[in-house]
Amino acid sequence: MASIVDKEIMTTTFENATEFVRKVAGQLTPENLLFLYARFKQAKEGKCNIPKPYFFDFQGKQKWEAWTSLGNMSKEDAMNDYVNYLSELFPNWETELDDNNEVKDGNAGLGISVSRMVSEDDVIPDCDKTVFDWCKEGNVKNVERCLTEKKNYDINKLDEEGMTLLHWASDRGLADMVSLLLSHKADQNKKDSDGQTPLHFAVECEHFNVVKVLLDNQANPMIKDSDGISPLDIDTTSSIKKLLDTYRKEHHKQNI
């Protein structure tokens, strides 16, 4: 049986690993993300405890299948799997974290919990990239250039996947990108094709900094999506729940 000290070391290593993955998820394939997502959920919550998503929810179904396939795997084994898999992908990942658990060398802060798994398409040449491509990559400079050059560009238009630029930035955990888009009049409460706002994505993907930026810019956590679920209803981290609850209480006071 592992000692308490060993468990504490493993838990700390696992938490550091999840922080590293949050920063470099943009470099990972959908297969990598699903593997890590399943072990993360198993380590945090144990055996899959949610019903199978509807057939049309393809990405939710992928996540559910990845998690439920682990069966009764222990939380400790899930943490070990997670750390070992990450070490295969990034052998020196522990040395790339600074004292504040930030990835050195300016790697983009992208979240492991992305709700939209990006397909492994052929690499798009820079000359053919759209503002949506630059946004998904987290390239703030080129997104700003595109928005500045296209004076009448509709920043709130939906792409072929039914999402705006702000939805993608929120999904990826790109706080600087979110701030840029909001400064260009992106609608913080715009709904995607499923009725979800950017805040739905940020809360579901547990991007604390993005949630804070959106709330600071009057994003409404009480807006319900097509299934009647608001950001307030989503199971997320305690720190994000606290942010949302603070907004709810302040909103209640203003309406008394």
TrEMBL record:
Q: Does the keyword Repeat apply?
A: yes
Q: Which Pfam families match?
A: ACBP, Ank_2
Where are the membrane-spanning stretches? Answer: none
Q: Does the keyword Repeat apply?
A: yes
Q: Which UniProt keywords apply?
A: ANK repeat, Lipid-binding, Repeat
Where in the numbering of this chain does the ACB domain appear? 10-95
- Please list the residue ranges covered by the ANK repeats: 161-193, 194-226
Q: Which GO terms describe its molecular function?
A: fatty-acyl-CoA binding
Entry-linked SUPFAM superfamilies: Acyl-CoA binding protein (SSF47027), Ankyrin repeat (SSF48403)
- Going by the entry's taxonomy, the superkingdom of the source organism is recorded as Eukaryota
UniProt name for this protein:
Acyl-CoA-binding domain-containing protein 6
Q: What is the lineage of its organism?
A: Eukaryota, Metazoa, Spiralia, Lophotrochozoa, Mollusca
